[in-house]
Here is the input.
Amino acid sequence: MANPLFQKNIISISDLTQEQMELIVRTAERLKCEPPPPLLKNKVVASCFFEASTRTRLSFETAILRLGGTHIGFDNDANTSLAKKGESLADSVKVISSYTDAFVIRHPREGSARLASEFSTVPVINGGDGANQHPTQTLLDLFTIFECQGKLEELTIAFVGDLKYGRTVHSLAQACSLFKCRFFFISPEALAMPDYILEELDEKGIKYQVSQSIEEVINDVDIVYMTRVQKERFDETEYKHIASKYILTAEMLSDVRKNLKILHPLPRVDEITVDVDKTPYAYYFEQAQNGIYARQALLALVLNETL
Amino acid sequence: MANKLLVEAIRKGTVIDHIPAGQGIKILKQLHLVDGNEKITVGFNLPSQEIGLKDLIKVENRLFTESEANELSLFAPSATINVIDNYVVKDKFTMSTPNALEGVFDCPNSNCISLHEPVTSYFKVTKKHESIYLKCKYCEKTFSKEIVAGL
Here is the structure.
């Protein structure tokens, strides 16, 4: 039987069912444990980054190479026909997809990956479209949570920092809600989780609580998902005052659960102090490495009828 | 006689009646009714027993489909639409909220790709607590109907 993701576009986390997410997580786990099989042999994947994104691009390209495939593309659009000659994205996608077996796209405008999927002749994988979606980040987060907790169901997760603009926290909260997780949301008032996400959680009967400080909840959670409070959202004095409340230090970890793991989509600035890196709770660098396995799993499933 | 509107009956076309006063001009614009060469008769702020004041639009030689009629429900849920052929009412539509709207409104998100590429806008329509929301197929943002339709 063909796997349900074969030849499927991966545009938005909401397009995936719980079973499909589990399939990706299990495949990533398998690929991490064994020497990489040549699942992309003779496949050419387009890696088209219309804006820079070092981690996402390099991990996609590493995933392709590790599975025996090759890639073509660019790491910013400055020298493409779009920028130089005014070609539409639709036309570019039509042409590039005709050269390749799959199309990975990163683009600064929201909806660009969905649009690309309408013009592409091969499956499109969204590597981030503006402030909208970044499904492979969510999948690598899910895989990391599964890896460090041994399950995805009924975990308690604290999201900390910028919960308003951070697309990774929106998608991860939506994905984890399928697994009946419980949430704590800790952020400055101006950067609180948007109402539409809270309404979705209410509709699904998911328990969540808005808290004021990390210390209030840290001893009661399995995962702390840190994000950066960005400077440009506040004036300088206000920023210093606000950001200082959302910094995680090693001192705060003295009475936490043994299984606690701290995640962060990176890059971090100073929201996790470096003394946390040496504790057994830090898991953000493993998380970044897992980007390779999650993307390998996705590409392998999309381009192989059976695995 | 003073309250009677003297608008000649049309042989073939569509009559949109009971439009809340003020919405008629938006319907003309959004449905691009004035872009063609068909004869259009409009009445603004006409007396109405049901809604006080109403607007009315008659478009000759254009027969609305049910989906076109449903697009109007965002502006004027109380409006009635009569499709006339040979002076006889051929179809009478009661308004219902459409499941989707294609090519009617632009996405309000200025960073949405649909504004910059040769594609038709598409919104999924949902109703929540008596309010209507539109979700753009491309940028996945959800807006209230007032924001999308500029009401």
Observations:
- The beta strands of chain A are 44-49, 70-74, 102-107, 124-129, 156-160, 182-186, 208-211, 223-226, 261-263.
- The longest helix of chain A spans residues 284-303.
- The longest strand of chain A covers residues 44-49.
